[in-house]
Design goal:
27% helix; alpha/beta; 304 residues; single chain
């Protein structure tokens, strides 16, 4: 009897990098090399809506709208509304530097959550990473406002500079009522890879190409936003389903080490900006792969 090959698994979490424009200039670590003079890429708003529609049709459960700063894209609100209309969960990864009143209303919609980055508990420490004076004060105020409005919020802290006060940043967030906080090291992608050669899969985590995939501003499909150097195809030409079923995707997936058995990393996130994992408990084991990109888990990602 001939056994049919197993159908390729569709990632449940899809990152949509809709722009490389950002008000900040995180020159030491930004994976997207984003900044104020960057553009929105070659994907139109209608292109993004088609991607979201196909994602819902093939079984994606949640999308993350990210950049750059995604709220700067002219179609941002329309894309979030489109995803919600298809019963997709939506996470908006924003620097929370500036938030329009209309966007607060969008963020409070059922099914929407926020994620952001926070680098230190002081103006000097945070602003040294972002390259924007006043960014700490603005982001902190909007974190407070998001919490006040009851918007689900997780925060990532990337340890970038010596003396950055990472633990103090975590403690400061706790005083604000923010407890979904994860710390990550700098990953050698984008700005962090300058002068060090080509990026390596050692900088990625086990969920990339498994539970997670990403679409870049030019329409290229990659294992995650940090895996932008591993394009598997162009969504405009092939569509998500064909790419995920293709040989190139399988090859890329095989290149990325899965989470190690008992590979717990209590103080690291599963490659920010993807949703992270909680500190490891006693249930971390080789056969208990609970690291889910949409809901978190108890075990750390693969580390090389």
């Amino acid at each position: 009897m001939t056994i049919a090959p197993e159908a390729p698994a569709t990632p449940s979490f899809l990152e949509l990098e809709i722009t490389q424009r950002c008000q900040l200039t995180c020159g030491s670590h930004c994976y997207a090399e984003a900044g104020p003079t960057q553009g929105h890429g070659t994907m139109s708003g209608e292109d993004w809506k088609r991607v979201i529609s196909e994602a819902a049709a093939i079984g994606v459960k949640k999308v993350q709208v990210i950049g750059g700063e995604p709220t700067l894209h002219p179609a941002f609100a329309e894309l979030v509304e489109h995803a919600l209309g298809l019963d997709l969960g939506v996470e908006v990864y924003s620097n929370l530097y500036k938030v329009r009143l209309a966007h607060w209303s969008l963020f409070t919609r059922p099914g929407v959550s926020l994620a952001s980055s926070y680098y230190a508990d002081t103006d000097d420490g945070h602003d040294a990473v972002t390259g924007r004076a006043g960014s700490h004060t603005a982001t902190r105020a909007n974190i407070i406002e998001a919490h006040r409005r009851g918007i689900p919020l997780r925060v990532g802290i990337v340890d970038v500079l010596d003396g950055q006060r990472v633990e103090q940043a975590r403690a400061d967030l706790a005083t604000l009522g923010i407890t979904d906080v994860h710390i990550d090291r700098v990953r050698g992608v984008g700005n962090a890879a300058r002068g060090s050669g080509a990026p390596s899969v050692s900088q990625l985590c086990g969920n990339c190409a498994r539970n997670t995939a990403a679409v870049m501003p030019d329409g290229s499909v990659t294992p995650c936003v940090l895996g932008r150097f591993l394009p598997a195809g162009q969504v405009q030409d092939e569509g998500l389903a064909a790419i995920f079923a293709g040989e190139k995707w399988s090859q890329i997936k095989a290149m990325i080490p899965p989470r190690r058995g008992r590979g717990c990393t209590p103080d690291e996130d599963s490659c920010m900006p993807s949703p992270g994992v909680a500190p490891c408990g006693p249930d971390c084991s080789p056969n208990n792969d609970t690291c889910k990109p949409s809901s978190g888990g108890t075990c750390g990602p693969a580390e090389d």
